[in-house]
Structure formats: C-alpha cells, structure tokens
Amino acid sequence: MTRSTLLRPLAFALAFTAVAATAPAHAQTAAYPAKPIRMVVPFPPGGGTDILARLVAQKLTEANHWTVVPDNRAGAGGTIGIAEAARATPTGYDIVMGQKDNMVVAPWLYKSLSYNPVKDLTAVAHVAYTPVVIVTQANSKFKTLDDVLKAARAAPDTITYGSPGNGTTIHLAGEIFNGAAKIKMRHVPYKGSNAAMMDVLAGNVDLMVSSVPSAMAQIKAGKLRPLAVTSAKRSTSLPDTPTVAELGYKDFDVSTWYGVFVPAGTPKDIVTTLNAAVNKLLATPEMKAAIIAQGAEPQSMSPEQFGALLKTDYEKWKGIVQASGATIE
C-alpha cells in the first residue's frame, strides 16, 4: 500500500470535519429569519419615523414572507428606543428604525446617554431622507413665512412653534432658523409629532416645525399650510413650497434621514441579508411612490455607505449643537 493510499482516508476525514464545522453557520444564515423580527420604533405612532418604519416592516413581510413586527418604544427624543435596540442581543431579530435626531444629534445634546451610535449600533440600510417643513393652521393669519418674520420681529418671544421634542433635528431646525433670521420664536416641545400636530391644528401654537412625512396627511387634507421647507432644494412632495434659502437665507439646509440599524456585533451575513431586502424594496416603483407620497425621498445605500454617513453626520452635528448652546439633562 502506497503512502498516498494510506493518507487518502485521513484527508477525507479532515475535509469532512471542516465541512461539518462550517455547516451550522451556513444553515443558520440560510434559515434567517427563522422567527419574527422585532422592529423598534423609537417614537409614538403616527409620526414620520413610525410611518416609514411601518411601511418598511409591512413590505418586508409581504415581499419575503417574513414577519416583521413594529414595536413603539417612545420617549426622550427617540433615545429610549435606540438605547433598547443597542442593548439587544445581536442576532438580527431586533432591528430599529433610527433617524438623524436620535443617532447623531441626541448624543451631543444629552449630558448622558447609555449608547454611542457609532460604537453600539451597526448601520444596515438607509431608507429615505426628508426636509423639515414649517407649517401653520390653514386658517392662520400667517400666509407666508415673511408674515411670521414680521410678527416675530414686532413682538419677540410671542410666536410659538411646536416640535416632536427637545433635541430633535426638527427642534434645532427652528433654533437655527431663529439665529439665521435674527428673531426669537418660543419653542414648545411635545412627546412626538402627533401631540404637536393636534395643538397646531387647534391653534394652541402658532407654528409647527415638522418632518414632511409627519405633516403630509394634514397638508393634503387642507388643514395645514406649508410655509417653507428647510432643505437645499424643494421637496418632491411639496413642489410649490419655497425653501428657506429661496426666501433670503442663503445656504440654509437642514434635513433628516431614516434608516435601519442593528446592535453592534450582529453577524455580517445577516446585515447583508437585511440590506439586500430593504434595497430591493426601495428599487420598486410601488415602494418609491409610497415613500414619496409620505413626503420623503427614497435613497438606498450599502451598509458601508450608510455607516460612513452616520460617522460624518455624527461629527458634523457636534459643532452645530455646541454652537446652538442647547443641552438636555
């Protein structure tokens, strides 16, 4: 018997062992998801984040025969839900719809947070971005943004504007506008967009600064009047609404984004699976139309591109928040 003949069974045994060792990992990946996926929504029902999260969860369920269940965990400007997601076991069965407020603004506003978005979460899939819109009740005396400016200059600190909460991008958009226009409007924070919406519709606050998705239904119903959007260019959903920059405040540009994150340490193949599923949805005419109908702009990215955006905005908003002087205990 030759040496090669003797070694042949040993080589086969080693090869079989190697395949067997890798088989569970492949089986686990192939089976994902083998049970329902919880999508944490860090704001109350009805706001922009909730609307987009439920749309993504529904379409992922329909397109892939998965079960993706939205779970609202609201409070503290979205930071409670993000913190819960960051603490979850990194198996791919707890995902979260994050957005700029709680991922890159809140860490510089709150004196103590239990999570670092760059270290404790992994970017999976960018979903959409949206400008912020300044709205007022349809019957308001303010017909244009210029009307607001004149009233604010005539009586400082008497014009009120509501927002979904302290420390959100939307709150800061109002403060940045105060600074750019050299006026003083009084901020009234709420626990989510719906509460702020109810008060502006009732006339209890003069204005609301809102994401476009949060305000879109009431704008379409004719109950809210959009005065301006804060992005560099006009919103596809509100083509007749001017930008703040067009009204004389050059380079004014504040917008927000939404995307899916998982706890850091989630296996890369699961991140890749989720990213591919979300991006496939975003490429369909039906999903694009649904997102645009809500006032947002669909935009897909790889996990690496979305992670780079997270890091860039995280550093950028450090300076913006520090310049504003805003802090939250």
TrEMBL record:
Q: Which UniProt keywords apply?
A: Signal
Stated name of the protein: Tripartite tricarboxylate transporter substrate binding protein
List the SUPFAM superfamilies: Periplasmic binding protein-like II
- What residue range is the signal peptide? 1-27
Residue stretches in coiled coil: none
Membrane-spanning regions, if any?
none
| Protein family according to the UniProt entry | Belongs to the UPF0065 (bug) family.
Name the domain of life this protein comes from: Bacteria
